[in-house]
Amino acid sequence: MNTPVLKKLMSEPTVHFFIIALIIFALYAIIQSGNENLLQIDQREIDARIFMQELSRGQELNLEQRERVTAFYIEEQILVREALSMELDNDARIHDILAQKMRHVLSGSIIQPTDDELQNYYETNSVRFETPASLTLDEVVFDSRDPLADSIVDSLQRGADTDTLLSMSEGTAAPLPNVNSVDLANIFDQEFADRVLAANLGQWQGPFVSNRGQHWLRIVERSPASIPALEEIADLVRLEWIAAEEETRLQQEVNKLWDQYTIVINNNEPD
Question: For residue 134, what are the β-bridge partners?
Fold first, then answer.
């Protein structure tokens, strides 16, 4: 190349810019070639973290708060990289977390049931929605734990009402609506619950002694086990349908992944 042409090229601003860019690129490459700890951060990930923080707080973050979120995210990425370099991911607990995360990813597109699907699920699984038999009870709690006077015992045996009984001895009375056998056993104990359940309507059963005094119960009404109409429990049925459908679809996706792998189980026992 002759001197006039070279001088002309060197006088072009575009050529100057190109040469400077080459020098900067070369210097950057040289510097980064020896930097094994280069961590490239995606601003979109930081913005997403900031957005989630603002969403949970219900207001925009100020500059200091944004910088704190950014610093925390960078620190998190550094720790993740260091953990991977130390092979800390090779841990059963981490594997469990990753597997659960993958399950959520695979089952992340669950749809809502149609009316027909909801009706079919309700009919097929109606036993699951059955409400157990229940009782409406009267309860009288006499303050004294000592044996009751014969007159009170006689009134109990004749099925006297709560007002009459409380006029004869200090205590309190209250109804127990819609309780089942499990409720009774939890409130009192299984033996007393069985006695109450076996009693006739209006027949006082007791005493059950507690720190409150002595309890007497009688059945006012029995309600048999029943299955509510779909309209009454549509939300519950819908949630159960979604859970069942999610599990089915998840297993289908997991089975597809199984088909992509060749599984070899090594026997490491010594010869």
Answer: 223
